[in-house]
Write a structure and sequence with these properties.
Length: about 120
């Protein structure tokens, strides 16, 4: 079975903002690199949702885990992003599906942006 992911409405909004900011700061090429990195991270999380680089964040909401983008491995030097500053918050929905609940800047306090109602 191929694992997959879906985005919550709030995660869609987060990603739109992140990518718009990337375009403003680093241009279309920078936006493309960050978008590819985010997608690679979400696919990797779908395949290994309890991986060693994820954190149980049950104190925020039941079933929530997090993954900091600094743990993403990029093989091609030209695809690297210098500053990886976002954290993906996700939860298992079914055995083959995770939901990306939010994608927040590392400086944001997650308890202010995740509701205990974000439960599995």
């Amino acid at each position: 079975m191929v694992a997959s992911f879906r985005l919550s409405r709030l995660a869609e909004i987060d990603l739109a903002h992140i990518l718009a900011t990337s375009t403003e700061r680093w241009g279309p090429a920078g936006r493309q690199r960050y978008a590819e990195l985010l997608t690679a991270a979400m696919r990797a999380l779908a395949d290994d949702r309890a991986g060693s680089m994820t954190q149980n964040r049950a104190s925020l909401a039941r079933g929530i885990r997090s993954f900091h983008l600094r743990h993403v491995r990029v093989d091609e030097p030209e695809e690297r992003v210098r500053r990886l500053v976002h954290v993906i918050y996700f939860r298992a929905v079914t055995p083959g599906l995770i939901e990306i609940v939010r994608v927040l800047h590392e400086r944001m306090e997650p308890s202010r942006h995740l509701s205990p109602r974000s439960q599995v």
